[in-house]
Amino acid sequence: MPTTVLGQNQYGKAECRVVKVVRDGTTHHIKDLNVSVSLSGEMDEVHYSGSNANVLPTDTTKNTVYAFAREHGIASAEEFAALLARHFVAGQEQIHRARVRVEEYAWDRIAATGHSFVRDGRETRLAQVAYDGEQLQVIAGLKDLTVLNSTGSEFWGYAKDRYTTLPETHDRILATDVSARWRYGWTGADGAPAPDWDAAYARARTHILDAFAETYSLSLQQTMYRMGSRVVEHDADIEEIRFSLPNKHHFLVDMEPFGLKNEPDAPGGPVYFAADRPYGLIEATILREGAEQLIPVDLTTL
Ligand SMILES: O=c1[nH]c(=O)c2[nH]c(=O)[nH]c2[nH]1
């Protein structure tokens, strides 16, 4: 009989949807989160013999998420995740590591009342906090931040082989849905105060957008590098940032059959076909010199 041993394992409750309302008189404030908890530690026995003695139920982790929202409020995705991660490791000696992931959805106020909201169409804010009993690792980010430059983008001078048909262009649309994760150097270990998470998030988002808008682009790779280096250069707390950027191709429609010209600078403006697939997928990590690359390569796993 071949023998087996247990490898990496973790467990917890995924996707606890928690909505916290703060009532400030008749003006309400909303935090809308999707929280996933993963715990690991001395969990051999539950796998080998079925003894649950070391297993804090996933139902309890779910309850803790809701109870903490009530007892502590939700100051920011990062702070809430760190609070939970510390709690699970500190509270159960058999649990050595906790990872808490948060997606945050934003709501805009509808003017008529203090308690009416419309889900805003912006990006989703992301936070992941891991705690090993000593150090926190905080990775924040965003996904589905959709941006488009209607000019100021070229793509030419690339390598060619017998299968290359792409025409070189000196004026194209550049569009992408930004997915980015950045890691903070702060670990909570040396008593240093935590960054202001909301301000740091807003800064990173602004630098990403400004670099996208201000870069005259020769490739999405170049634009991506500028976005990343701008974030790292402007925020001493951020050690590295990783992007996954679909190149959302917009092709000029061939109007020759209709006897119409359709050039980027045509009078009245050009018409494009927005292709949804396949798309180029451009990915990279941009690091502070000397920093370690700790953000996983595949952002869909984070
Ligand atoms: O910005 C781009 N980078 C590429 O690597 C690439 N490849 C391609 O076909 N179009 C583009 N555009």
TrEMBL record:
Pathway membership, UniProt: Purine metabolism; urate degradation; (S)-allantoin from urate: step 1/3
- Under which EC number(s) is this enzyme classified? 1.7.3.3
Q: What class of enzyme is it?
A: oxidoreductase
Q: Which InterPro entries does this UniProt record tie to the protein?
A: Uricase
Under catalytic activity, the entry for this protein gives: urate + O2 + H2O = 5-hydroxyisourate + H2O2
The UniProt entry, under Pfam families, shows:
Uricase
Give the record's keywords alphabetically.
Answer: Oxidoreductase, Purine metabolism
Q: Does the keyword Iron-sulfur apply?
A: no
Tell me which Gene3D superfamilies the record gives.
Urate Oxidase
> Family, per the entry?
Belongs to the uricase family.
Role noted for this protein: Catalyzes the oxidation of uric acid to 5-hydroxyisourate, which is further processed to form (S)-allantoin.
Q: Which PANTHER family match?
A: URICASE
The protein here is known as Uricase
The organism is Streptomyces tremellae
